[in-house]
Design goal:
single chain; 436 residues; mainly alpha; three-stranded antiparallel β-sheet; 7% strand; flat
């Protein structure tokens, strides 16, 4: 059963729960007829279809619908679609129950532009059903849009203790269910003063959203907000890198265990060298992620434990005077990308029977693998070829250069000092020498 057939079956079950006499031919014939006569003659049928569309969309967790989907999938009965459905959608649009994307306030525009768009919408100057294509356009159910916006704010409120929060656009889209959905929700929140769009536009744009978690409007954006967005984005990128490293580690581990079980210890040792390199890269990436998250935690604690104005002043002084530049973060993330690529290259080289890491390091990984499969440790030597490890030190060095002014949180300063101590260690080269 394909996706469309599954949707037809599921929607059919929901309709029959909502409308007990849905399969009654006499009732169906009356409901599917086109509207005619005075409004009082067809208004009850209009309310029937309007409420059914909204209730079905709510059950399906949708607030953006396509008219073709509604007619040809939801309400299709043996190839017949309701003749009145286009009229129903037009009436819903005129009543404000349905919005078109052109009706939405652009959340990326300035405040004055948003106010003007809102005024035009309220007085109805831009709402003309004749300009809307009800056969192709995506239409937004305004009631369900408001419910979705409330749901997103509720989820964030449950995870943040502050009066507002800043998240990346990627995270916001995940909460909303997609890019179209996120645009609509952000438009609604911006129009009601509950959210502001943030953009760091340098080498590669970083988009984010500042959302009020209280009944009041969101506060004006400050320089601290952009720095928090920058750090949050960095943390998410590092988490993605950790996921990739873990995936490669698990793949190499399975291959190594399979080689051991088949008695091929030479191949197992080759995979063990990849495991060792993955572990080293993961350690560096985890250490950096912990420091970024610690800085974010200190900022959140400061905002929740002090007056907002004081927290902004402390955070702004600490980060504005000594902030981590976007360029340094980019260098760090590029090094991590290159580290993962080098692991793939090593796997290919080792699969061809060439190269390796330090014998003692590989033997340690090999012993762990043998313990896992319950076989004795082989005394067979390993070629002594040195390998260096990629080290994403750029952002760590940036942390080490921070020197906060009086009044900055001591916990934040201790994190910086710890990073500074680590940055004095010997830098490890990012090139890996492979021998044939």
């Amino acid at each position: 059963m394909d996706k469309e057939e599954e949707e037809v079956r599921w929607v059919g079950e929901l309709i029959r729960k909502e409308v007990s006499d849905w399969d009654n031919e006499v009732m169906a014939s009356a409901r599917f007829k086109a509207f005619s006569g005075q409004r009082s003659d067809w208004e009850p049928r209009y309310f029937f279809w309007r409420d059914l569309i909204i209730n079905l969309a709510r059950h399906l967790r949708l607030f953006i619908i396509r008219p073709s989907q509604v007619k040809n999938i939801w309400f299709n009965r043996g190839g017949l679609a309701p003749l009145c459905l286009d009229h129903v959608l037009i009436e819903m649009y005129n009543a404000g129950d349905i919005l078109h994307s052109s009706d939405l306030v652009d959340p990326t525009s300035g405040r004055l532009s948003q106010v003007f768009k809102r005024v035009v919408y309220l007085v109805g100057l831009s709402r003309s059903s004749s300009s809307v294509d009800f056969t192709e356009d995506h239409l937004i159910l305004s009631t369900l849009l408001k419910e979705k916006a409330f749901e997103v704010v509720k989820i964030l409120s449950d995870n943040y203790w502050t009066s507002s929060c800043i998240i990346t656009m990627k995270k916001f889209q995940e909460l909303c269910g997609g890019s179209k959905e996120a645009y609509a929700v952000l438009s609604h929140l911006s129009a009601s003063g509950k959210a502001k769009y943030l953009l760091i536009n340098k080498k590669g744009s970083i988009e984010g959203v500042k959302i009020s978690l209280t009944p009041g409007a969101v506060s004006d954006t400050m320089s601290l907000d952009y720095n928090v967005l920058h750090l949050t984005w960095t943390a998410e990128k590092l988490q993605q890198q950790l996921y990739v490293i873990d995936q490669r580690y698990e793949r190499s581990r399975k291959l190594a265990l399979a080689s051991l079980r088949s008695g091929n210890k030479i191949i197992a040792r080759r995979h063990a060298s990849v495991l060792k390199l993955s572990s080293q890269s993961r350690g560096k990436c985890t250490a950096l992620l912990n420091r970024v998250e610690e800085v974010l935690r200190v900022i959140d604690d400061t905002e929740s434990s002090k007056e907002v104005s004081e927290a902004i002043q402390i955070g702004a002084r600490a980060i504005k005077e000594n902030k981590i530049s976007l360029e340094e973060v980019q260098v760090c993330l590029q090094e991590l990308d290159e580290s993962i690529k080098s692991q793939k290259q090593i796997e290919n080289v080792l699969a061809a029977g060439r190269g390796g890491m330090d014998a003692e390091d590989i033997e340690d990984e090999f012993k762990k693998l043998e313990l896992e499969v319950g076989s004795p440790v082989s005394k067979h030597g390993v070629g002594e070829t040195e390998a260096t490890e990629t080290a994403p030190d750029s952002l760590i060095n940036a942390f080490s250069n921070l020197s906060f002014t009086d009044g900055a949180d001591t916990a934040l300063q201790s994190v910086v000092m710890q990073a500074s101590m680590e940055s004095t260690r010997t830098n490890i080269s990012s090139d890996l020498e492979l021998e044939a």
